Amino acid sequence: MKYTDFKTVLNSSSYKVGARRAHRIQTALNEGFEHTRIFEIDFKNFKRDVVACVGNKDAKMLINKLSNRWDIVADYFFEYKCNEQELSAIFWADGVARINYKDFGDVISFDGTFRTNKHAMIFVPFLAVDNHKVSIVVGSALISSETIDNFSWVLKAFLKCHEKQPLFVITDQCSAMKQAIPMVFMEAKHRLCMWHIMKKVPSKVSVALNHNPMFNKFINKLVWNIHIGPMEFESRWHEMIDQYNLGGDTWFTEMYEIRHSWIPAYYKDTPMSGLMKTTSRSESLNSYINIYESYWFDLVQFLNNYDVAIEKQRYRQYVHEAVTRTTNPKKVDAEKDKCIIDVYSKVDDIISIARNDKSILARLGRNLDKFMGDIEKEVPYEDPSQQKLDAIRDHLGVSIPDEVDILPPSGIRNKGCSTGKRLIVVVKLTYVRATSSPYSLDFG
158 and 294: one domain? Predict the structure, then answer.
C-alpha cells in the first residue's frame, strides 16, 4: 500500500465508509479488479494497524488535538477532567457553536443515549433550533458514565463556556440528568422528552388496547395537543382513563403525576417550546455522526467523524441563510395563504380517497352545505366586487390606496424617440417559375 491508499481508508472512515466498501469504490474507480493492485484484506489490515498504533494513547491524543485547536482557533473552548489518570469527561465548543447559543440558546436539548465503541464513553450533544427550525450544535461532551457527578461537571463546563443559562432544557428520563440539572441550571425549566415517554405506551398497555386505533388516536391527540390548556387536558385524561379502564395502572398514574414536566398544555406559552418538544433531535445527531464499529475505533477518529458531520450541518445552515437574505417575501400574509393551501389540500385528499364512493361524496356535499350555512352566519356578506379587489390585492401583494398623492410620470418623451407611428409596409409576393429549380420568391 502507498500513502494514497492509506489516505483512502482513513478519509473513507471519516465519511462513514468502512474498509470493505472503500476497497470496492476504489476498485470501481480503477475500472476493475485487474487494475487494482491492493486487495480488500489490505484495507482491513491497515485499519487494524491504525487501532494498534493508537493503543492506549487515544485519550491523550484527543486532548492534544483539542489543545492545538484552543491555541490557534479563535473562541475555541474545551475542558476535561480525569478520575486519577483516566479521562472521565470532556466538553468542547468552537466559536460558531458559541454564537449559535448566544442567538438561539433559550431552549436546548441534550441526550446521552449512544456509547462509543472502544471505550464505552457516552456522546452528549447539546442542540438548539435556529430561525429555520433546523437543529444546530451549541456544544458537545463525552462522559465515561451517566452519573450525577459527570453530568454536573459537563453542565458547569457548558455554563463556563456560554456564560448564561438556558431558559428551557429538554432531556430524557435519566435520573442522573434530572438531579444534575437543577444543581447547575438553577434558572432553567426542565422538561422531559415526550417522544421517549410515548414510545413506552405500547409496552404499558394490553395487546388488544395497543391495537385499538381509537385508543391510539385518543391518547396521541390528547398528549401532543398544543392548543388546549391544563384544565381541558386533565378532563380529557380522566375521560381516557375511565373509558379504557386504566385507573389501576401504575405507569399511567406516575405519568399523570409528572404531567407538568412533559405535557405541552402546561408549558405551551414558553418561548420556542413549540419548536422543541423532544430530544429526538439529539438522537438524530447521534445517528447522523454514526457512531458505529464499522467506521471508527478510537476517540480521535470519532472527533474526525464529528467534524465532518458538523461541517455538513453548518453548510446547510449557510445555504438557508443565503436563501433568506437573497429572497424577498412573496406575500404580506403568509400564514393565511398557508391555511388556504392546507384546506385545499385536505379537500383534495378527501375527494381522492372517496372518488369512487357516491355515498361518501354525497355525505361530504351535505356536510359542506351545512358548514357553508354556519359560516355565512358568522362571516358578514361580501360584495363580489370586493372579492375581485381582494384577489387583485393578494396577487400584487399590496393594498390598492383610496387616495393618491404620488403619480407616475406623465409620459414626456425622451429626445431621440420616434413619433410612435408605425410605418406600414405592404409586401407583394410574386411567384416566378424558374427553369432550373422549383419555385422561388421574388419580392416586389
Answer: yes
Residue 313: the pLDDT is 82
Q: What are the tens digits of pLDDT across the range 227-268?
A: 888 999 999 999 999 999 998 899 999 999 999 988 988 877
Tell me, yes or no, whether 87 and 134 share the same domain.
yes
CA-based torsion, 320, 321, 322, 324: positive or negative: positive
Q: How much is the pLDDT for 403?
A: 74
Q: Look up the domain containing 10 and give its range.
A: 3-55
**Residue 73 DSSP code:** S
> What torsion do the CA atoms of 286, 309, 126, 197 make, to the nearest 10 degrees?
-30
- Mark residue 28 as left, alpha or beta (left: phi above 0; alpha: psi -120 to 50; beta: remaining): alpha
State pLDDT tens for residues 10-55.
Answer: 777 766 677 888 888 887 877 777 767 778 888 888 877 777 777 7
Q: Which three cell numbers stand for residue 19?
A: 474498509
User: Residue 171's closest CA among 113, 111, 129?
Assistant: 111
Q: What is the rounded distance in angstroms from the CA atom of residue 320 to the CA atom of residue 216?
A: 36
Together in a domain, 359 and 375: yes
203: which 3 cell numbers?
409496552
Q: Are 172 and 90 found together in one domain?
A: yes
Looking at the structure, do residues 354 and 378 belong to the same domain, yes or no? Answer: yes
Grid coordinates belonging to 237: 385524561
Separation between Cα atoms, residue 124 and residue 135, nearest integer Å: 15
pTM above 0.70, yes or no: no
Sheet holding 107-110, edge to edge: 77-83, 86-93, 135-143, 122-129, 107-110, 168-171, 189-192
CB 24 within 8 A of CB 38: no
Q: What pLDDT is attached to residue 240?
A: 95
**How far is residue 195's CA from residue 215's CA, in Å, rounded to a whole number?**
17
Count of helix runs (H) and strand runs (E) in the chain: 18, 9
> Same structural domain for residues 353 and 225?
no
Amino acid letter, 204: K
| Statement to judge: residues 365 and 385 lie in one domain | yes
Q: Which three cell numbers stand for residue 40?
A: 480488500
Same domain (yes/no): 178, 81: yes
